[in-house]
Amino acid sequence: MAKSDAQLVVESLEGDAKAFEEIIRRYQRLVFNIAYHYLGRRNEVEDLAQEVFLKVYRSLGRFDTTRPLKAWIGRITSNACLDEVRKYRTRKVSAFADLSQDEEERIQRGHSDAQAGGSLSDQEAEESFRLLYQAMEQLAEKDRLAFVLREMEGLEYSEVAEALKASQVAARIRVSRARKKLQESVKSLLAQRGVAS
Question: Domains of the chain (ranges plus CATH)?
């Protein structure tokens, strides 16, 4: 039977390297995905992920084992990403072509929801995904983060709130605001390009 996150934290604090390796294994995808949506380049994502897990390791003693580890690691990752974005504000997020198949599918699901059943050709759909990704760059940092955590990473609102150090109501508002802005931006950009919505 798999050990709980709390057990792994306790064992890691007792010096069990394998327990911490299991924490990394469980949450590396979450860390990589969040970082990728902010930084875009895989080599930067790998560097940031190493930094995140180093921070996690150093901070384990302060972790409250009654809270969800996923949200706590998400918050550390989010803070690291926000710090990186602030340092390099002029850096462009990667092109849509650099997205993985999994990330494209997540964006497609989000776009499909936004289109509420509208039909697009494959070419129009690909262009709209590109536009959606570009529109994400225009969101306020915390709104984009809330959207990524909830809609792309599938975290519960309670976990999004924990990662943002906010109430669940504030997390819901940020996600809703991000969705609305993205829908408006994509619709506007599609209209400018003569694509029916």
Answer: 1-94 (1.10.1740.10), 95-197 (1.10.10.10)
